[in-house]
Specification:
Helix content: 40-55%
Number of strands: 7
CATH topology: Rossmann fold
Order of helices and strands: EHEHEHEHHEHEHEHH
Structural class: alpha/beta
CATH architecture: 3-Layer(aba) Sandwich
Shape: globular
CATH class: Alpha Beta
Strand order of the largest sheet: 3-2-1-4-5-6-7
Number of helices: 9
Length: 250
């Protein structure tokens, strides 16, 4: 896929910011969105090709208005990368409904709110690409990550459905599933993170996958991908025995 107009949601920090910078370096025009205007401006500073569009994905009117503004300013949206995430959690064995609502409102419904207006725009322009930043944590239910794993698993399922349903509209759906990547989000983790990757290395893999291939799944690093996919096919007694070892020691 050649350079065009990309829209990065969650582009004010972490993987989103690194992907935006890399796309701009490859001659894409890039719109970045997120809640924090100051962080968006920092990313856009020094890049004539990056433009800030503040957005809270939990605000439906704001979603539609932002799509309209980007199209009015930049002409179209060829690629949308959804990377919004709510950094909420709870202690193992506790499932507070309000925190689950916060996680799902951003991580899952944040994407759902923009799909219909974005799909309509992409149909008008003849097609496009939708890429969703899920996680290897969405492959199985991980202890200590109930909200995160559940929301990322929902994104994986939704992307699988969208890949088939939107193909006749010339809209290509891509799933991005990284392992642990250095960011504000992972900096809060108080447990070992195997194969922890630098942000720029992850962004390179994502951009290469989006622009130089057509495969559905962009997942990395491969040792962790293999391990997580193996966990999905293990008999439940063995799976749960392994998961129990991930619980914090009392």
């Amino acid at each position: 896929m050649g350079p065009g107009v990309a829209w990065i949601i969650g582009g004010g920090s972490g993987i989103g910011a690194a992907v935006a910078a890399r796309l701009a370096a490859e001659d894409w025009t890039v719109a970045i969105s997120g809640r924090r205007r100051d962080r968006l401006d920092e990313v856009a500073a020094g890049h004539d090709a990056i433009h800030a569009y503040p957005l809270d994905v939990t605000n439906p009117p704001g979603v539609t208005a932002t799509i309209d503004r980007i199209v009015a300013d930049l002409g179209r949206i060829d690629l949308m990368v959804f990377g919004a995430v709510a950094a909420v959690g709870a202690a193992p064995g506790h499932y507070p409904a309000d925190r689950f609502e916060t996680a799902l409102d951003t991580n899952l419904l944040g994407l759902v709110r923009l799909l219909d207006p974005l799909v309509a725009q992409m149909q008008v322009q003849g097609g496009g690409q939708i890429a969703v930043l899920s996680s290897l944590a969405g492959y199985v239910g991980l202890p200590r990550a109930a909200m995160y794993s559940a929301s990322k698993a929902a994104l994986i399922s939704l992307c699988q459905t969208m890949r088939v349903e939107l193909a006749p509209k010339h809209i290509h759906v891509r799933l991005i599933a990284p392992g642990y990547v250095k960011s504000e989000f992972t900096a809060r983790n108080d447990f070992p993170m195997p194969f922890l990757m630098e942000t720029d290395a992850a962004a390179r893999r994502i951009v290469d996958g989006l622009t130089r291939s057509s495969r559905f799944e962009i997942a990395f690093p491969w040792p962790m991908v293999a391990a997580m996919k193996l966990l999905r096919v293990l008999p439940y007694p063995l799976f749960f025995a392994i998961m129990a070892r991930l619980m914090p020691k009392r």
